[in-house]
Every structure is written in C-alpha cells, then in structure tokens.
Amino acid sequence: MKGGYDHYMQKEINEQPDSVLQTMRGRVKFDQKPKAMDPSWDPYHEKRITLGGLVDRISTIRSGRRIMFIACGTSFHACLACRQTMEELAELPVSLELASDLLDRRAPIFRDDMCVFVSQSGETADTLKALEYAKERGALCIGVTNTVGSAIARSTHCGVHINAGCEIGVASTKAYTSQMVALTMMGLALSEDSIRLRSKRNSIIDALGVLPDQIREVLKLDAEMLSLAEQLKEEQSLLVFGRGYNYATALEAALKVKEVALMHSEGILAGEMKHGPLALVDELLPIIVIATRDRMYQKMLSVVQQLLARGARLIILCNSGDSEMKEICASGGSRLIKVPETVECLQPIINIVPLQLLSYHLTVLRGYNVDQPRNLAKSVTVS
Ligand code: M6R
Q: How far is Cα 254 from Cα 265, in angstroms, rounded to an integer?
C-alpha cells in the first residue's frame, strides 16, 4: 500500500512528478509540429490548454465581475499561490476567501461572480456551506477537487478534477501541487485569445512540460532535508519568510511543520517584517527565507541582508547557481537549499517540495505520528 515507503506522506511527496503529470494529462497541448502544406495550421495556437469541464463556460467566466477563490487550509494556500497568475492571465479582479470567514461575515456575493471552490476531499464542511451560500446568490460555482463524485464536485455547476490520485496522509502534499497546476491551467485557458499574453502563456506551457522532471530533481534533496531536520528537531519554533508568489509557500511550509511535526511555525509576508516580526529575530531562532529568482528577488536579498545584520540564523531557499546569494551568505554561515529555476508562477510548486520533505523528517525525528497527527482528520466534515 505504501509502495516501499514508511509513511503515506512520504509516498505522496515522492509521487509528485507523476501526480502533476496526471493533472496535465490530455489537457495541455505542448508543441504541435505543422503538417506540411496544412492551410489550417495556426502557429499561434500550437500550445493550448483544454479543460473539458470548463470549455463551455470560458466566455461566461471571462465576462464575470470577479473571480473569487474559496477554500480552507492547504487548498486556500494553493489559491493564494495562484492569485497573481489568475489576475495576470484572466485580467479580472481575483479575491480570496477562507470559507469559514466568508460565512462568518456573510460576505457579499453577486450573480456575476465566478466562485472557485478548491478542495482536495470535496467534502470540507465550510467549503461546502460556502458553496451553497454562493449558489443561493446566483454565482457561477466552479469546483476544483481531487475526489470524483464528492459533494463539492457534484454541487458545483462545472469544474476541474485535479487527478492527483488518492491522498491518504492527513497532511496535504501532492494535492497542493496539483491544485496549483490546475489553477494555472485555468488561467491559461482563460487567456487563450489574448495576443498580448501569448509569449507569457507559451513560456508557462513550456515550463509545465518540464515540471515533472524538475520535481524529480528537487526530490533528490531528501538527504539534505533529513540533515537539516536533525539540526532543527529540538527547536521550539521556526519562521518562514516569503513574498509575492512565495508568500503562499511560506504559509504552507509553516502549516506542514505545525500540523505534522507539532512545532510552532509561522509563515510571514516578508514585506511585513518591519511591522512586528523583526522583533523576534535573534541568533537562536531558525528562519527559512524563500528567495528564488522572481520579481521579488531584489527585495528578498535586502530582507536576507537585514536579517544577517541582526545575526539571524538563516536557511535560504534559492535557485541553483545563484552566486549572488551564495556570496552574501558565505560570511553569515547560512545554510542554502538550492532548487531548479522555472517561470515565476510555477516556482512555488518546486519550492514547497523540499519544505514538505523537511516537515516529514522533522516529524519522524520528533517521534510523532506522520500520517495521522493528533486531533486532526483528513476531511473536516463538521464546522
Ligand atoms: O479537503 P480540503 O482540501 O477541502 O481540506 C482543507 C483543509 O482541511 C486541508 O487542506 C488541511 O489544511 C490539510 N490537512 C493541511 O495539510
């Protein structure tokens, strides 16, 4: 059942090269070779995305007032990671709602809202209630689930199955990366007609093509993450700093550490560092900084420098071959986690993998139950 692994979480982390491929299978058309003399061949449409469950709704979604992502836990983090991608590709306002908070506030939802409900199990009580609430208000409800026939899959008007395969460990790992792939594909499907976005779309589709191999590559960091976990296993707390696309990575990594390793951990938006969190920084508290090369890189470099100036104990997640970061960190004695580079909207998919491995090893070393953390259920069917 565990396919030679000790725990389901470990198996599911290692399945990700395949699970993301399954999410894309039959939906992403990479390069199409022009047939000689074929007059119907359109060079601009050689790379395309077809989401069977959404094809009839694409123009309705495009004409909506806004896209609203609604989810809980890790699924919410997947929405957060993909918000900017969706804003840039669909060119619509995108709002994010934790299902419980949306219900607590009875937030306004309108007939021309496009509500996207993201849930691995498809049975989460708050997400399901928020779905009923949005339906009563006449919004188009789109499901992004991993469970065919689940309540959310059945009750939404249309949707996308992420096809990540059964996830048994309470900690969501492969569903998270597949949710991000599915939401990115949705953004690509919504932008298909945009000439302005064509080259951006093509580079994302190219990057999706090599994503499984890049995840395979990053899984090789397992031994390194075990040695980092050895170093951190007695700690009381672990902070994770990120911003932009990787704010979600910081929150998700901290959730994994909390949930399974039962260690206090907090994901922090690096832009908020000086508004409070900086007071926590000393020579003892371990801090992971996510500083891969994207639009936020220069700002993250400056965060690293400011933390190092305060003697912080840093673990920096950066891209392989980042000599600038290597140089800055050499003097501070920081530890580097080096990951392959991809387009910025897919980088969170690569970046979370070593942090999933870290939380897995921390849990084993601390002697806690990996697949069934205390007090938690895989599917939260009561609010
Ligand atoms: O099944 P769902 O995606 O709706 O579940 C939502 C959360 O309960 C879930 O992601 C939870 O946060 C995970 N156990 C985190 O690993």
A: 5
